[in-house]
Amino acid sequence: MAHRLLRARADAASLSGSPLWRWLGLVPFALFVLLFLILPVLYLVQGAFQTPQGQFTFDNLRALASPAIANAYSLSIRLSLVSAGLGALFGLLLCYALLHGGLPAWLRHAFTTFSGVASNFAGVPLAFAFIATLGRLGLVTVLLRDLFGINLYASGFSLFSFWGLALTYLYFQLPLMLLIITPAMQGLKREWQEAAESLGASRAQYWRRVALPVLTPSVLSCFMLLFANAFGTLATVVALTGANFPVVPILLFQQIRGNVLYNPNLGFALALGMVVIMVVTNLLYFVLRARAERWQR
Questions:
Q1: CB 219 within 8 A of CB 238
Q2: Ranges under pLDDT 70 in the chain
């Protein structure tokens, strides 16, 4: 009996130590990726090269060069670049202030927790929050007009314009930048600053010649992540502007669900273009991230 028990334990230990058993936990994730990422991408690639009757064609890809669609891609890329650039710049400054500004630890933790929530606050709730704040009759708009005589909309600002959307995007881009750049800034070693100071460098020289060059790959990789985050945003734009701001996700939505512009195969081609841009963006992110991690070893 004891011999059988020892044999069963040995078999169980052998099974749990086998590579097949250790990789078994990845099966649900692999199935999820297959069903909701790989197969849909293959489906849209197939649809992008087909007519509504199922015949092979390049017409859908040629249509991407039409002025309306080219302008939509240009508008989406410019909006993503601006919101990512501003988010990366001010997020970096915010992170520096939090880590090196002498703030109490409880305030830093509270700010980080809030950033985790704010980075996921987008879509319709975010749009209505900005309308209530900076709309034509928003709280801040009315207070600035009545208390200080500043009329935002008379000066040319509009929440429903390019810069209004960029400002709205910053609400989730800034906290996202703070969350992903903080580990990199915390990874700056104290010994590097002490070595620079022992050689006579000032604090500004340390940041300009040591810290910022080390942080540059991390900042650029964060910028690529913010760009990808902004490029696929749809609900916020729709809630703020309806269909009057023709970025690529809105055109895609119109082609798949619209009544007038209904053309699913052109929608598949638009989605394929977005996938290509996102793949390039993520590849650049991984390359820059690999360079940034050299300093963390």
A1: no
A2: 1-19, 258-261, 295-297
What pLDDT shows up at residue 120?
85
Token pair belonging to 233? 């945003």
Residues with Cβ within 8 Å of residue 278, at least 6 apart in sequence: 228, 231, 232
Q: What is the pLDDT of residues 202-216, one digit of tens each?
A: 989 999 999 999 999
What separation, in Å, do the N-terminal and C-terminal C-alpha atoms of the chain show? 52
Return the closest-CA partner of residue 84 out of 265, 228, 239: 228
CA distance 21 to 192: 44
